[in-house]
Write a structure and sequence with these properties.
The protein is of the alpha+beta class and about 160 residues long. Helices cover about 20% and strands about 30% of the residues. The protein has one helix at about 15-50; strands at about 60, 70-75, 75-80, 85-90, 100-105, 110, 115-120, 125, 135-140, 145-155. It has a six-stranded antiparallel β-sheet with strand order 1-10-9-4-3-2, with no helix packed on it. Strand 6 and strand 7 form a beta hairpin.
Length: about 160
């Protein structure tokens, strides 16, 4: 009768203790790296002395073809037109910063994140957003295109006559 005895692990095989120790060191290194990246980002922001960068002007193009009651999105800005004239809206939802988009069939700006909706003039209609969309300064360039200034908010009644 022959019996086989389990072979002992050779000294080159990693032990369970060694494997856990290596995993712990790896996890610690990842945490230190993540903290370093976060601290680096904060220091870069603080050392710039200006805080977050102010977005530059946005060329909304020619207003031709935009009928009363319509809007069009250009990046994070919308150009809209009502009976009083043209105006620009910031497409940053005041709830959590998602980007609402103009939905022509419903005549509303709809936020895809949490369902807030806004009227053509940016007023809040529904959803968790605490207020309406911000109105931005709008001016006409010498070549006839409209330029929005995302860093400059204006009163919701401000219009550029067209």
């Amino acid at each position: 009768m022959s019996q086989t005895t389990p072979s002992k692990a050779s000294s080159s095989d990693p032990s369970r203790r060694g494997l856990l120790k290596g995993l712990g060191v790896f996890t610690w290194a990842c945490l230190v790296a993540a903290a370093g990246l976060g601290i680096g980002a904060v220091l870069r922001l603080v050392s710039s002395g200006e805080g977050p960068a102010t977005p530059g002007p946005v060329d909304l193009g020619s207003p031709s073809g935009l009928a009363v009651g319509q809007a069009r999105d250009v990046g994070a800005v919308a150009l809209a037109r009502d009976g009083e004239g043209y105006f620009a809206l910031s497409l940053v939802c005041p709830h959590l910063g998602c980007r609402p988009a103009w939905h022509q069939p419903s005549g509303r700006f709809l936020c895809p994140c949490h369902g807030s909706s806004f009227a053509l003039d940016g007023a809040r209609l529904s959803g968790p957003a605490p207020r309406g969309l911000s109105h931005l300064a709008l001016e006409k360039s010498p070549n006839g295109s409209l330029i929005a200034r995302p860093g400059s908010e204006v009163a919701p009644t401000t219009r550029l006559k067209g």
